[in-house]
Amino acid sequence: MFRNYIKIAWRNIVKSRFYTAITVIGLATGIAFTLIIAAYVWGELQVNRNLKNVAQQYIIQSKWKNPGEGFEMATLGPLAKTLKEDYPTLVKNYYRFDGITSSIYKKDKSFRESIQIGDSTLLNMYGFGLIDGDASTALTQPFTIVITEHAAQKYFGKTNIVGQTLTLENFSGAKHDFQITGVLNRYAKNSVTQLSEDYPSDFFISNDNLEFFNRDMSWQNPSIANYIELQHGVSAKDLEQPIAQIMKRDAPSKFQEDLTPYLVPLKTYYLDQNNGVVRKMIYALSAVALFILGMAVINFINMSVSRSSARMKEIGIRKVLGGIKKQLVIQFLTESVIIVLLATVAAFAVYLLTQGFFSNLLGKNIPSLNDFPVYYMVYPMLFIFLAGMGAGLYPAFVLAPLKSVESLKGKSDSVKNNVLLRKGLVAFQFITATVAFVGAIVISKQVNFFLSKKLGYNKDYIISAQVPREWSQPGVDKMIAIRNQFKMLPGIKDVSLSYEVPDGNNVGQAYIYRQGTDTAKALPMQFLSSDEQFINLYQISLTDGTGFQGNRLDSGKIIMNETAIKSLGFNASKDALGQQIRFLGDPTIFEITGITSDFHFGSMQQKVQPVIMANVQFAQIYRYLSFKLTPGNLSSDIDALQKKWATLLGNAPFEYKFMDDTLANLYKSEIQLKRAAYVATILALIIVLLGVIGLISLSIRRRTKEIGIRKVLGSSVTGILLLFIRDFLMIVLIGGLIACPVAYLLMSNWLKDYAYRIPLTSTPFIIAVASMALSLSHSSACKL
């Protein structure tokens, strides 16, 4: 019997090819997009979940009295170790690391890599397995290194490499061979080997090597990542008092006053870091996906309801031939479920075809279908059943009970075309699509505002590359000489040596106070180390005074931005020139010789911070050479630059980035959301138009005689067109009145997170509503 239901259902589906195609395409589009977003969300939720004893794993973060004073994700070097030693009944294990970047060499290969200098507890504490090597001893000796499977393939082309060596360079320019003692098996993404999104570590060395890199994990260093594993039954709250006691006993006084360590569960750390940007992205994309799916399902239901009255004669004939209500109900529900099944199968095919595209779009790897547990197949099966049942309810339980005579006549007082229901469903689709459209416009304008607004410097035609470090006076002199030789290249307009480029990652905060005032009034400022070419290369406006001159006398000079001057109490730039300042804890007296206009060193999500610039001759630390290229022939200029690099810097890796790319990285989440909003808007528009086309087609089919009579009586095509469009004009107006306030509230709330933002004008709302109205009118005209 059931086989007969399927056979008849299939005949009806094939018979109505046009409506079936519209329904399947719209539904498959919504399901496919939802599957993609669901896979993305699932992948993000899996981060850190595969770590050993993850429920007891925590990272110690720092809350600073002055935001931006230090790194939130790091804390004082010895804290985790001290907690384990002083409170073994509370703390089971610990791991700490100092993250650095340095050049790694193997024969003719050289790359700048992120390296963790950490405790030997890493492998056992988190359950990281080794393809080759002994986990218990791999990180216990100096000048040994554990690398990932990826790094092994990169440098050696194989993984059985224990006993071989890699050459690492320290910040003084010295090199040393490190013996490989282990190769890490491939592991899932986590916040231990990749604490920062931009710096995944593939190389792990023992903290016995701290001295070689001139690093330390002392109480004076608040930039060390600290992890602890709690004993079973111990909560984060149980560590509050021990942490407070250790801070009071061991921490320097300046950190006791300004820094408060606290525990964050590693299980949720990835979602909540950076003000919960990942969690917000998940919520935003999930909401968009659910709305798109809802629109697709509503489209399906609307088509099902609209077509139901056309089958009243069929119901009457079936009843005359002996059909009963139960059989008719099952028949309608079977057809509906089969259509959803076809759409779901098509959606999975679309998923496989677009997986790579969406991975690039979102900047994250979308899991393949094989990555999901087998039991996850229950969810699409459940959806097929529920959506099919939901769409088939109206024809199954409203039309099936009709009397045979009423059904054969094709009309009934008890069953009308449910115009209100259909228009309500279309209105919901219109509202959703309009909100998505407004969101896409606003997000796009905000991202463009970030990337095109006057930043206070010129980012065009600038590339930056990290250089080998020799942090000493001879090292600075050497790099200045190399800088000058690069500047002689024909395609190079200017070159600058600095520790920072405008990407938000500066050397840290420095406490500054005016000479002769109380040290208690010292204020934190972003400290930048640069040469005399930096301001000119980035075209930062010097409003008063002079820049650095390029000699040793620059070591006593300081340049500040306008915000820094105001924070020190100067009313005008001219009042600050020639004034003396000091760094907290440093007896050197510096003179303010230049004032720059404010510029956005980091993201425009935060307000411009006070910035103080010291010459590299004083700080004697550097990381980057920035090159201002001459417009015209960038490719050949970069090739010439690479050849000169090889001549001047040997086999040091030449890995460069354009400032446009560096700046875009600051707004990675916003750009991802912008792309997703575009896709969602396009999909929403497609689903709405498919639904309207289908409904208009059914309306034309029911009113064919009426259209013929109107034409015979002289009606024009335009007049008939307006007759059909009129049905949707009220929907557009009502939908617009509802969609605009909803979109305004959502976008206002989103924009509040940014210190610098676009004004929310009426333009995006007018464009969205007008575009949707024109699209609906055009689709109606095309069908007629």
What Rg, in angstroms, do the CA atoms define? 33 Å
Count of helical regions: 24
Instruction: Give the low-confidence spans.
Output: 404-410, 412-417
Structural class by SSE content? alpha+beta
The count of strands amounts to 21
- How far is the first residue's CA from the last residue's CA? 42 Å
Helix content: 40-55%
Mean pLDDT across all residues, rounded? Answer: 80
Task: Write up this protein.
The structure is a single chain. The protein is α+β, with helices and mostly antiparallel strands and 784 residues long. The protein contains 24 helices and 21 strands. A hairpin with a 2-residue loop joins strand 2 and strand 3.
Supply database-style keywords:
six-stranded mixed beta barrel; 17% strand
In brief:
The chain has 784 residues and is an alpha+beta fold. It is built from 24 helices and 21 strands.
Topology:
Layout: H1 2-15, H2 17-45, E1 57-64, H3 79-86, E2 91-106, E3 109-118, H4 122-126, E4 130-133, E5 144-148, H5 149-155, E6 165-169, E7 175-184, E8 203-206, E9 225-230, H6 240-250, H7 253-258, E10 259-265, H8 266-308, H9 312-320, H10 325-362, H11 378-399, H12 404-409, H13 419-452, E11 462-466, H14 473-487, E12 492-498, E13 509-514, E14 523-530, H15 534-537, E15 542-545, E16 557-561, H16 562-567, H17 573-576, E17 580-583, E18 589-596, E19 611-615, H18 616-619, E20 624-629, H19 634-649, E21 656-658, H20 659-666, H21 668-702, H22 704-712, H23 717-751, H24 763-783
Parallel strand pairs: 3-8, 5-7, 14-19, 16-18
Antiparallel strand pairs: 1-9, 1-10, 2-3, 2-6, 2-9, 4-7, 5-8, 6-7, 11-20, 11-21, 12-20, 13-14, 13-17, 15-18, 16-19, 17-18
Helix pairs in contact: 1-10, 2-8, 2-10, 2-21, 8-11, 8-13, 8-21, 10-11, 13-21, 13-23, 13-24, 21-24, 23-24
